[in-house]
Write a structure and sequence with these properties.
Largest sheet: 6 strands, mixed
Strand order of the largest sheet: 1-6-5-4-2-3
Helix content: 40-55%
CATH superfamily of the largest domain: SGNH hydrolase
Oligomer: single chain
Number of domains: 2
CATH topology of the largest domain: Rossmann fold
Number of strands: 6
């Protein structure tokens, strides 16, 4: 199951671009319009000054995400000439949407994978794990990170740069974490896509206060990783399902404009565990996804990316 709040302002952005040009060219060429606006021409400054004031009125009336205040907005809009009306409606819708910037093409050129042992685990001979990739794929190319990278290469035509990061420490102790310091390496990578795969190591959220703290930490992390809306965010549910954690992950994902991928059904099939594929002495390692489980995770993530290529929803 994939749910998303991305891409729903594409039409608004198109209308805004069209209306802005049309307003500028209705009475004079673009060149002349630009000259007047910079030189302080009375007609130009009056027209764009009123548009600016109107935009602020729209933004204030619709300042909450996905909220349109008809009582405050419609009477004002109906009093406007058609071209400024189109311009302000489109800009108002854009301004009331989470994230910043105009619609642009999603390229999938730089993918950041943020997770735990399922994303990346260094060698740990004491528990019989000698890999340096997602636990417990048999080889690197069969973990979900590498499978997604290969899938994106087929989707966009180039092999993306990618960086897997293990933040299991954040899961276990997420309260009061300095996100900028902890994620310095990730931010420096400047991803255009972030795949978030956490939750399994989060302690039991037995109180409302604990739930609130976890969600606050998620919102801080997700917002920072989206880098002011420039990166697509994909958040998957826990491999070992947990109703509370998964709900909070989904809520935080929705609030920052990300795409949520539900993989909770994977554990119903024993074939998705590494222990079903090969003999693994350590029970904890064997309880991780094997090659089959990794492929199912990767397929779910890739399914959420395919619409991005056609809808171009990065804002």
């Amino acid at each position: 199951m994939v749910s998303s709040r991305l891409g729903h302002v594409s039409l608004s952005a198109v209308l805004a671009g069209f209306a802005a040009v049309d307003i500028c060219t209705a009475e004079q060429p673009i060149r002349k319009c630009g000259a007047e606006s910079h030189s302080g021409g009375k007609n130009s400054s009056r027209r764009f000054g009123s548009l600016s004031a109107g935009f602020e009125r729209l933004r204030e009336a619709n300042r909450f995400p996905n909220h349109f205040n008809a009582v405050k907005t419609l009477p004002y809009l109906l009093s406007l000439p058609m071209k400024p009306l189109l311009f302000l409606v489109s800009l108002g819708l854009w301004a009331s949407t989470p994230g910043t910037g105009w619609t642009q093409e999603w390229k999938g050129e730089r993918i950041l994978f943020v997770g735990n042992s399922i994303t990346l685990h260094e060698p740990a001979p004491k528990i019989g794990w000698n890999g340096n990739w997602g636990m417990a794929a048999s080889v690197a190319k069969k973990d979900y990170v590498h499978l997604v990278v290969t899938g994106v290469e087929k989707l966009v035509g180039i092999r993306p740069e990618f960086l897997p990061v293990n933040i299991a420490d954040f899961e276990r102790a997420h309260t009061g974490v300095d996100v900028n310091k902890r994620m310095k390496e990730a931010f420096a990578f400047h991803p255009d896509t972030v795949v978030m795969a956490i939750g399994e190591n989060v302690p039991v959220l037995g109180t409302e206060a604990a739930k609130a703290r976890f969600k606050t930490a998620l919102l801080q992390l997700f917002t920072a990783l989206r880098q002011n809306g420039r990166a697509v965010l994909i958040v998957r549910s826990c491999f070992w399902p947990n109703t509370t954690k998964d709900r909070l992950l989904q809520e935080a994902c929705a609030e920052v404009g990300g795409t949520f991928v539900d993989i909770s059904g994977l554990v119903k099939a024993e074939r998705n565990f590494a222990r079903s594929e090969r003999k693994i002495p350590h029970a904890g390692v064997g309880h991780h996804p094997g090659d089959a489980g990794m492929k199912v995770i990767a397929d779910a993530v890739l399914a959420s990316m395919k619409p991005l290529r056609t809808e171009s929803p990065v804002r």
